[in-house]
Amino acid sequence: MQPEFNQLAGLSLRWRVLLSAALLLAAALCAASPLDAGTQLQAEQRFQLALEAQAARDYRSMLEQLRQAANEGHAEAQEMLGMVLMTGPALYGTAVKADRCEAGMWMRRAAVQGSETAKVQLTFLNRLRASPAGKNACG
After folding, report:
1. 96 neighbors 88 (Cβ within 8 angstroms)
2. Closest Cα partner for 77 from 109, 119, 121?
3. Of 45, 77, 108, 124, whose CB count within 10 A is highest?
4. pLDDT of 42-77, one tens digit each?
5. Structure pTM?
6. pLDDT in tens, 88-113
7. What distance in Å separates the CA atoms of residue 121 and residue 21, rounded to the nearest whole number?
8. How far is CA 136 from CA 80, 121, 133, 139, in A?
9. Residue 69 to residues 2, 11, 84, 88: CA-CA distances in angstroms?
């Protein structure tokens, strides 16, 4: 009876090793494969990618991801995009041009969604681009 038990135990171990190897291979393939062109990222995912790009100082990618998430209605992305466009090269070098008019547009969109930060920044922004009476600075 002892040889049969050893044979079953050995077989079981082989199956466990084989199963583990298959699972590791599947995990590696999933992690290594790039996003499919058809894969749609959600606005929150784009916003997180923008934050990662900012941390990596990849400001062009950050701006691209923020614009996409903001266009999809993500309030935090709209707020951040407005702030990025307000500061422009002062914080982000040549990768980001300052555009206070576009910044205002994104701040207004975020404010409509309830962002208190966007409301405060919009007030500040309106003071920065105050124009002579009767003229709209953003045309």
Report:
1. yes
2. 109
3. 77
4. 999 999 999 999 999 999 999 999 999 999 999 999
5. 0.66
6. 999 999 999 999 899 999 999 999 99
7. 54
8. 24, 18, 8, 5
9. 64, 52, 14, 19
